[in-house]
Design brief:
The chain is mostly helical. It folds into two domains: about 50 residues, Arc Repressor Mutant, subunit A; about 170 residues, Orthogonal Bundle (Tetracycline Repressor, domain 2), CATH 1.10.357. Helix content is about 75%, strand content about 0%. It has 13 helices and no strands. Helix 1 packs across helix 2, helix 5 crosses helix 11 and helix 8 crosses helix 9. The chain is elongated, with a radius of gyration of 21 Å. The termini are far apart.
Length: about 230
């Protein structure tokens, strides 16, 4: 009973904070106003959330939970066409990562260096969860012969980097980006094409890349071959 009451109070704080953040934005919102609206003491509020940043992270996480789940639902281990599955996943993931809410969270976390608890919470609830699920999917695809055998954790890092590669610099330097669905589909299609060129089952005949120090094994791919995959 006590636990349920605690959870209700915590959610009431999150709901009221969401209202304040919507009205005023992150910078102008204050813990004092949130406490005043939700009632109770400062001690109670800070017992649940030690900072405005931590509270904002929770608000944004809950607001985007459905989209996070929907993106990972695209990783169907029964899919016959792994390229299609990865493209469906990539489009949902990239649209989420470059939504206004999630970009705000990422900028908040990267500007809060030194706040290890906030960074760790964001990492474990966001990137780490996503990478764990994607790694499990890729591992299953390797077992089915849809991908070459290799370290799925490394393949996961490569795929995520490829999916975000055409937008990341613009995000870091806060340059305007065109993230409409058509453009996102194009970004992801190119990323998956390059990924499959390196990790598809036919790539095994080219040597042991990735995972060894002999880069000649990948040299045979060539720019023309990559372009054929992209087109």
């Amino acid at each position: 009973m006590v636990k349920k009451k605690t959870e209700v109070k915590r959610q009431a704080i999150v709901d009221m904070a969401a209202e304040v953040f919507r009205e005023k934005g992150f910078e102008r919102a204050s813990m004092a106003e949130i406490r005043q609206r939700v009632g109770g003491s400062n001690a109670t509020l800070y017992n649940y959330f030690p900072s405005k940043e931590a509270l904002f992270l929770e608000v944004m996480y809950q607001a985007n939970q459905a989209e996070i789940t929907a993106a990972h639902d695209m990783l169907d281990v029964e899919a016959d066409d792994i390229s299609e599955a990865l493209q469906n996943f990539g489009k949902r993931l990239l649209a989420l990562m470059y939504s206004l809410d999630v970009m705000a969270i990422r900028r908040l976390v990267t500007s809060s260096f030194g706040n290890e608890e906030l960074s760790r919470t964001f990492y474990e609830r966001g990137p780490k969860r996503s990478m764990d699920e994607l790694s499990a999917f890729l591992s299953a695809a390797m077992d089915k012969g849809q991908l070459r055998q290799c370290d799925p954790a490394v393949a996961t890092l490569h795929l995520r980097a490829l999916i975000e590669s055409e937008l990341l610099d613009r995000f870091i330097f806060q340059i305007e980006m065109d993230c409409n669905p058509t453009r996102i589909a194009q970004f992801v299609e190119r990323a998956v094409a390059v990924f499959m060129a390196a990790y598809g089952p036919e790539s095994a005949s080219r040597g042991d890349f990735p995972g060894d120090s002999n880069r000649k094994s990948f040299a045979g791919l060539g720019a023309k071959s990559i372009q054929e995959h992209i087109e």
